[in-house]
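Backbone-to-sequence.
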């Protein structure tokens, strides 16, 4: 669909329907309203160009109130994240990763005390050693309830020295890159070995799943060498196609020698 046929009526309609809806929903409604066949990519570009926000948090779209309530219930039982993930997937027939469940629990503050660490009959290594400590360690003791001044709760975010967002996913101090977590959550699988997640528009703060693109390290090397990562996700995807062609040409030249 050429840009010249977008009218004020088209833009006004997008402004009315976009809040609270995904790109797929907006595209479907737009095409039904005007009898067109516009692609989702074209709609996303049009939304960005006119500063139209879709609004609804992805967290809310991906988890129902029932699912969130169940996650809270499991967390309050003191279960570990692996067990919470297993029960969640079993109840709702989903395939969420442990990382995805950890991230959503941190987002909503569903923390667990993990009281089930010791099974019945388990004998701790320090049984009968009450009152013993290694000489000199008393200097570093913390009073009960004290936390380091740098402590932050699970779900907190920070920015590393390279400008990437990181999220605290577990105690005592386990962090992960936000864009990787969101990609893994959106695709229900971990980032495969030898691959990285890049930002389609080059903005390290834009962690919208539509802006996160999985590429191999070989593809990334070509993208960087040829300057193919643009400020628009669709253009960067086109750059990946160019990078693949460049690699294929190189392979054939080597094979022809």
């Amino acid at each position: 669909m050429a840009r010249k046929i977008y009218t004020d009526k088209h833009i006004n309609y997008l402004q009315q329907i976009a809040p609270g809806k995904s790109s797929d929903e907006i595209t479907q409604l737009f095409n039904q309203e005007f009898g067109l066949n516009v692609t989702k990519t074209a709609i996303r570009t049009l939304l960005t160009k006119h500063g139209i926000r879709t609004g609804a948090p992805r967290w809310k779209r991906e988890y129902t109130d029932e699912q969130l309530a169940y996650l809270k219930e499991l967390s309050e039982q003191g279960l570990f994240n692996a067990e919470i993930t297993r029960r969640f997937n079993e109840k709702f027939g989903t395939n969420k990763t442990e990382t995805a469940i950890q991230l959503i629990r941190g987002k909503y503050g569903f923390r667990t005390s993990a009281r089930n660490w010791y099974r019945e009959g388990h004998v701790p290594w320090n049984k009968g050693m009450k009152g013993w400590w290694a000489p000199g360690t008393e200097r570093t003791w913390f009073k009960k309830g004290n936390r380091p001044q740098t402590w932050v709760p699970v779900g907190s975010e920070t920015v590393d020295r390279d400008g990437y967002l990181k999220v605290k996913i577990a105690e005592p101090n386990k962090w992960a890159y936000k864009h990787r977590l969101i990609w893994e959550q959106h695709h229900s699988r971990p980032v495969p070995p030898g691959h990285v997640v890049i930002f389609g528009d080059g903005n390290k703060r834009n962690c919208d799943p539509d802006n996160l693109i999985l590429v191999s390290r070989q593809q990334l090397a070509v993208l960087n060498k040829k300057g193919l990562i643009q400020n628009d996700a669709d253009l960067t995807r086109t750059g990946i196609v160019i990078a693949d062609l460049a690699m294929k040409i190189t392979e054939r030249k080597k094979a022809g020698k």
